[in-house]
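User: Is it possible to get a 3D structure for a protein together with its bound compound? The compound here is flavin-adenine dinucleotide. I've pasted both below.
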Amino acid sequence: MTGQNPVGREEEGDSEFPLYDVVIVGAGAAGVGVSVALGHAGIENVLILERDEVGGSFASWPEETRFITPSFPTNSVGMLDLNSVVIGTSAAWTLEVEHPTGRQYAAFLKAIAKHFELPIVEGVDVKRIARLGDEFGLDTSHGIVRARHVIWAAGDFHYPRMNGFPGSDLCRHTATIPTYAELEGDDFVVIGGYESGIDVAAYLADAGKTVRVFDRESPWTSESSDPSVALSTYTIERTRRPGFVERVALHPDAPIASVAEVESGFEVTTEDGRSFRTPVPPLLAGGFDGSHTLVSELFESREDGFPLLSENDESTKVPGIFLCGAAVRHDNHIFCFIYKYRQRFAVVAKAIATSLGLPAEGLEQYRTWGMYLDDLSCCGQECVC
Ligand SMILES: Cc1cc2nc3c(=O)[nH]c(=O)nc-3n(C[C@H](O)[C@H](O)[C@H](O)COP(=O)(O)OP(=O)(O)OC[C@H]3O[C@@H](n4cnc5c(N)ncnc54)[C@H](O)[C@@H]3O)c2cc1C
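Assistant: Yes, that's possible. Here is the predicted structure of the complex:
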């Protein structure tokens, strides 16, 4: 269906827009994965709207950035590849790469979309969603789309956090860098020391550049075994390389108060009053506001700003709209990685199937794949050694 007008009948002057059982916004890892789960639940009247192209966020990562979560073809013993979003698929097997680049992973998602003939329409931007009676109206760049249920899976990559402190607009967010190779200069400041910040620092150190990394905390020394909080093993290994040790200075407990333009470049000031000069714009790796900010009026908000969700990842404020992807939070559980949030696809599919009066028996197989996390009491266990 790629390229079709989702409101095709509008062009013929017919005001009767088609009504879908489910419209999914976003064809990234979450949108692709949950749409296959809907199919396994027996839900067929589905449309996926994607403003860019399938896997567009991954394709926009800096060219050098690789997955920190490894892929391995473990499916033969019932353990789904960590980076797969669909049961029975393996990124490792398809791509023959252990740590794919974003572009490689986008190709994997496209292969899934093609294999399962997913009803994706690319190039359609969803601007607003409103609940109208017992259905939703989606205001899109191509007209109105109607749905009984909506799954918001628009991710966070296209919504970088740019306004953390005065002068942050002078910085360059790492999500806007097509390739690190284009970065000119020898002496860099990186603001944010979690995965993206250490990724660019490690690249620059390998290229012989000097880097200072500032973080409000100290992710590189966190003792948590949860990669949603601490650096991944892949990244820790990179920080131990001789070039990194020699050329990267890590500044923990150093929240940035401001960035200002000065004659010789830029001055970065920490909240405790220390100032640092850099000749090139500081690189901002401070995370993302997330696309859920676009639909915030449809969800209650948690204290940390993430949407408050029911046990089925449905809005507690407006029934019928669900959230899938890295913004899913339950209590202290952060589902920001694929291997985490994919386990909620079956939960969402089951809830929608139930609302449509379908038995969704095809979802039971998700349990044997470790893809059906409907009991959150098991989450949050730390490694004992
Ligand atoms: C640099 C980087 C490295 C990462 N490494 C890993 C890793 O190693 N392992 C891991 O598990 N996770 C990793 N992550 C996290 C991972 O990328 C996210 O979990 C994943 O992208 C989220 O998938 P998603 O489908 O929710 O969002 P996305 O992949 O961003 O998909 C959302 C889609 O929605 C579309 N969209 C957005 N807004 C609209 C709109 N208004 N209308 C229509 N379409 C819209 C976008 O174009 C996009 O295609 C990394 C993230 C980054 C930024």
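The chain has two domains: 8-158+289-378, 168-284. Residues 8-158+289-378 form a domain with the FAD/NAD(P)-binding domain fold (CATH 3.50.50.60).
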